[in-house]
Amino acid sequence: MSEQQSERVRYDVLVVGGSGVDTVVRVDSLPVPLADSLGVPPVREWPGHTGGNVALGCRALGLEVKFIDFIGDDWAGGQVRERLAKGGVDFEPLISPAGTRRAVNLVDSTTGRRMSFYDARDPEGLRMPRDFYLPHLRRTGHVHLSVMNFARHLLDDIQELGVPVSTDLHDWDGLADHHREFALRCDLVFLSAAGAGERFASVMRDILREGRAQAVVATAGADGSYLLTRDGSRTPHPIPATVPPGPVVDSNGAGDAYVSGFLYGRLTGRGLEECARLGARAGAHACTTEGNTGLIGPGDLLSP
Fold it and tell me: How far is it, in rounded angstroms, from Cα 190 to Cα 51?
């Protein structure tokens, strides 16, 4: 980034896309047994989703955060606005005629494991106007893109401006075309090891070989995470999982918390391995509360 650009930086992180509302249903076990009806504890609604959770997590760690996205002029959009305002996130939405994204998440009451039914609902041709997003790109030190289709259309301008960019591919199998451009055009790539199964290490290597990433991180839940860097070994380096500081309640948002902790480390000048350990600590902390209600702060993140 040029000296002239750095003088205009106002935000540490600009998050693009990925807000919505989760309906969380706690069940005795997964998979759910086939039945006409099952009694469950109270069904809860949690506004957040991947982009919202990363924005909230980074803000809770003291970073200056801007969040831009599409939401609906509906009840769910109002919930998203309220949660982000409560978390101190500077949120500037555009209105989508399709409404606010939703998901129904089944959560195992014993292990906190989840199964998500995601309603993306964005129209294929949805686009952010360039005169809307470009001023924000010029005022941030880092961009984090959710894998919304409209977000890929910011990549040319992000790279023209020289702003570092990250993305989370979630459970990408290494094959689906929707994720590929994000995988190959971002400087820092997160994904879930579960998506590629036993192939996750080769998927990580492919991202480094074919793309521009300096580092790829694969999260593996209770098995920890893996870090592969451009100047390191061809074998992903295992990062041990952090023991949660309390009983596991809900794994919703744990991966987003990992990203927030990692970005905090990166933006405060820490090495990649230390960033991964901070991510692991943030992710473990997130599992001990419902939704995104228990965001970790810098004191707990950095405690010995």
Answer: 13
Angle, helix 75-86 to helix 49-60, in steps of 10 degrees: 20
pLDDT at res. 9: 67
Looking at the DSSP bridge assignments, the partners of residue 138 are none
The whole-angstrom separation of Cα 174 and Cα 172 is 5
**Are the C-beta atoms of residues 119 and 101 closer than 8 Å to each other?**
yes
Q: Token digits for 281?
A: 């600590």
pLDDT for residue 187 = 98
Low-confidence ranges of the chain (pLDDT < 70): 1-9
State residue 8's pLDDT score: 62
Q: Enter the tokens of residue 194.
A: 């579960």
Q: Where are the alpha helices (DSSP H) in the chain?
A: 3-8, 49-60, 75-86, 130-137, 155-161, 177-185, 193-196, 200-210, 254-267, 272-286, 298-302
Q: Give 134: exposed, middle or buried? Use CB within 10 Å, 0-12, 13-18, 19+.
A: middle
Kindly provide the b/e burial profile for residues 22-44, where b requires at least 16 CB atoms within 10 angstroms of the residue's own CB. bebbbbeeeeeeeeeeeeeeeee
pTM greater than 0.85 (yes/no): yes
- The H or E element spanning position 94 is strand 90-95
Q: How far is CA 147 from CA 120, 191, 205, in A?
A: 11, 11, 20
Residue in 195, 219, 192, 50 with CA at minimum distance from that of residue 120? 50
Give the C-alpha separation, 19 to 49, whole Å. Answer: 5
Cβ atoms of 116 and 87 within 8 Å: the answer is no
**Cα 235–270–92 angle (5° rounding)?**
105
Tell me the residue length of the chain: 304
Question: In whole angstroms, how far apart are CA 164 and each of 16, 55, 167, 270?
Answer: 13, 16, 11, 15
In Å, the largest CA–CA distance within the chain is: 63
- The burial class, CB within 10 Å (0-12 / 13-18 / 19+), for 280 is buried
Q: Collapse the DSSP code of 174 into the 3-class scheme (helix H, G, I; strand E, B; otherwise coil) and give the result.
A: coil
The vertex-76 CA angle with 73 and 79, nearest 5°, equals 105
